[in-house]
Amino acid sequence: MKASRHLPLLLLLFAASGCSALIYEIVWYQMLQLAIGSTAVSLGVLLATFMGGLCVGSIGLPRVKLVEKNPLRVYAALELGIGIFGLFALFVFPLIDRAYVAAVGYGLPGMLLRAVIAAVCMLPATVLMGASLPAIVRWVERTPRGVAWWGWLYGGNTVGAVIGCLGAGFYLLRIYDVVVATYAAVAINLAVAAVSYILGGRANEAELIPEAIEIPPVEDSDVGQSQWPVYLAIGLSGTGALGAEVVWTRLMGMMLGATVYVFSIILAVFLIGLALGSAAGAWLLRSVRPRLALGWCQILLALAIAWTAFAITQSLPYWPALVNTGPWKTLALDLGRCLYAILPPAVLWGASFPFAFASVSASQKESGRLVGGVYAANTLGAIAGALLVSLALVPWIGTQQTQRLLVLIAWLSAAAVLAPYAWRRRNSFVGGMLAASFAFALLLAWQVHKIPGEVIAYGRRVATAMGNSNILYTSEGRNSSVAISIGQDGTLEVDVNGHVEATTEPFDMKLQRMVGHLPALLHRDPKSVLGIGFGAGVSAGTFTRYPGIQKITVCEIEPRIPPTTTQYFGNENYRVMLDPRTRIVYDDARHYLRTTSEKYDIIASDPLDVFVKGTAGLYSKEYFETVLRHLNPGGMFTLYVPLYETDLPTIKSEIATFLEVFPHGTIWANTRNGDGYDMVFMGQAEPLKINLDEVHQRFARADYARVAESLRDIGVNSPIDLLATYAGQRSDLSRWYQGAQLNRDRDLRLQYLAGWGINAHMEDELYRQIMSYVRPPADLFEGSPQLVTTLMSAFGPVANTNAQP
Predict the structure, then answer these.
(1) Residue 502, C-beta contacts closer than 8 angstroms, at least 6 positions apart
(2) What's the pLDDT tens digit per position in 362-388?
(3) pTM over cut 0.85
(4) Do the beta carbons of residue 340 and residue 479 sit within 8 Å?
């Protein structure tokens, strides 16, 4: 029996290993958003830790005394270890909260501490993943055909990764949760370990270690030639690859809707390109000189990176808008856009691996050490690219200059391998072409354009919204991109990552102020407030109107937003940022609440819409329980919830989850020209009883004059007008939302439901459904009969006799 007979099975096993690895990566990213926050730090830590573990494993295993061991038995042990440590991470991640509460606290230092702890949790499994490729290539002889198989194995592993990425993002996490997804990955690891162990027992030692045979050198390489140019080139290639992935994920996510499905598609396209490129490179090894091929591949990458930058900034924004299609068609079109833009450079990055493997294959080192060295160099570069781009370059110089730098890094990668080649062989043609390509790379970099301000403002709706307003300002921060625009009617709008955050439209101003006025007017004596999300600052600014409020804390994830919106929305937000009572904390809201010991009379939450990846954590049962623990006795919590771009399962899940934690909570509606549009949920620990006489007395006080003025600005002339927006409570709606899926930390079900219903146009239909179940709330209000009667008559459709029993 020859070792080559087992290679197809080995390819299948390695593909399964890649599948499990990507399931872990997708699961860990979701868990990182809860442990660290939905920030650039989360993505940077995930990529850096994943790549760092791969690097350590790929370098470390060949240096362990396992050369004489059965390669398949070693591989089986690695897969078993990955499964064990995958389970370890599943159970340890939720404990991270307990580790950082007593330490650094909130803000960037707290994020970084939590990131280090999270990295430690992921590192053991990723180290073993990195060791698997060097372990398995020891079974493949180092001939030109054998070296090609190294590329095939890498490509097969990447094909499996594509399956794992899509399977986790579209099935395991959408239908089940992180526990089931992790168990699936562990089961794959155990199956691969079992088959590898059995196969290793059936093959004899001569078949398993064919490197004892004399190895013919690869045509392009001379024995003793320095391998460092190859390692440097593949390292720089890794820097460009992961740096580009960070930039393009941000830009494409903004353009396509930033749902959890979009991020899975973008990652899958990267992996598809790597797999195709690796397969093509392995096939081409029979007819190319590896070092030259590696160099020319990097020069082509400079062109491909420039192509993607062109596609994202100059082409895709003008494609037809995808806002009136079903979810599957929308996702198919999103996949087409990503393939169009991202696939060419991904293929070239994939092809770089077999070329790099072949370039070092003539060395006398053991094959596992050779492959591990190439893999390690690439992953070290990838770590640098992920961290530098996400945490430094984008907020410092922006995505345009970052992409220009990536073009030049691709050329430097080519120069690292071609310049020594030309010098050693005195090849003036290669040297001349390299010099000419530098001028070409400079030209390509110069042609990279900025992302249009309309994309930052309108995202996936840019094709239809372009020309309807003027972009006044754009800025790219560490976590978010911000745009300020003014419509033809003078309406100001602030947009974050391609989605509207707030406007000065009357219906929108009413909603933003309702988030603040409802709890502040109904609370008998509010003194301290926590605002979740700054946005336009209107909700937070509402609290500056109340004379008794002494402290306003606002938790905002993006430092660029408060000063920007203060400049443009200062009149509407009463310049709350500059108010001496205001303190702004730049952190993820979940983790600020986890770290602070403060309690508040009011917590008002106005986050991004729930379909945006990472936002569902601010709508989970566990998050609501944390909010409840941080309310003072009699404290109130309000939460903005949209009805637009929402479908029935999404709104039912939101209401069911909220009322599960706040059983005495109430719902308040904001309409647009009489039609349903969005809502405010309000919850508290105790049963709610609203004394209309007390509310009217507070409203009429002289020190509440600014409160009355703020309400009149949104068309609310009395407390009756505000309270007439009542839209139900648990006793009304429990039958309607019965069977709805609760949104929990372990599954974040809401981001999958909301991402699926993003193109729904059901806002008024949902509102009418809810209102058909709502009965006159006689048990909620008390006071003089005249005020109670006036309020009941103001409810309109709520008070009709056709309401559901």
Answers:
(1) 493, 494, 508, 512, 535, 536, 538, 565, 569
(2) 655 556 577 777 878 888 898 889 888
(3) yes
(4) no
DSSP state of 450: P
Residue 57: pLDDT above 60?
Answer: yes
Element (H, E) at 701: none
- Whether 493 has a pLDDT exceeding 90, the answer reads yes
Q: Residue 530 is which amino acid?
A: L
Contact 244, 406 (CB under 8 A): yes
Token digits of residue 120: 């430690």
3-class state of residue 424 by DSSP: helix
Q: Range(s) for CATH 3.40.50 in the chain? A: 544-549+587-799
SS3 per-residue string spanning 706-752: HHHHHHHCCCCCCHHHHHCCEEEEHHHHCCCCCCCCCCCCCCCHHHH
- CB within 8 A of 99, min separation 6: which ones? 114, 117
- Residues whose CB is less than 8 angstroms from the CB of residue 430 and which lie 6 or more positions away in sequence, other chains included: 292, 295, 418, 421, 422
- In the chain, helix, strand, coil percent, each to 5? 65, 10, 25
Q: What is the DSSP string of 144-206?
A: HHHHHHHHHHHHHHHHHHHHHHHHIIIIIHHHS-HHHHHHHHHHHHHHHHHHHHHHHHHS-HH
Please list the residue range(s) of the chain that carry CATH number 1.20.1250.20.
1-209, 227-382+392-447
Residue 394's DSSP bridge partners are none
In CATH, 544-549+587-799 is 3.40.50:
yes
d(CA 445, CA 438): 10
> Tokens 């509310």 label which residue?
695
Which amino acid is residue 626, in one-letter code? Answer: T
Cα atoms in the 13 Å half-sphere on the side-chain side of 465: 26
**Which residues are CB-contacts of 696 (< 8 A; sequence separation ≥ 6)?**
718, 719, 787
Q: Report yes or no: 463 and 499 within 8 Å, Cβ to Cβ.
A: no
**pLDDT digit string, tens, across residues 667-692:** 999 999 989 999 999 999 999 999 99
- Report the topology of domain 227-382+392-447: Growth Hormone; Chain: A; (1.20.1250)
What HEC string does 260-303 produce? HHHHHHHHHHHHHHHHHHHHHHHHHCCCCCHHHHHHHHHHHHHH
Q: What is the SS3 assignment for 379-398? A: HHHHHHHHHHHHHHHHHHHH
Q: Is 139:11 a contact under the CB 8 Å cutoff? A: no
Pairwise CA distance, residues 701 & 713, whole Å: 18
Give whole-number Cα distances, 129 to 17, 53, 529, in Å.
8, 8, 47
CATH code that applies to domain 1-209: 1.20.1250.20
Return the structure tokens found at 618: 């601010």
Query: Considering Cα of 430, then 431, then 436, then 439, what sign does the dihedral take?
Result: positive
Tokens of 695: 């509310």
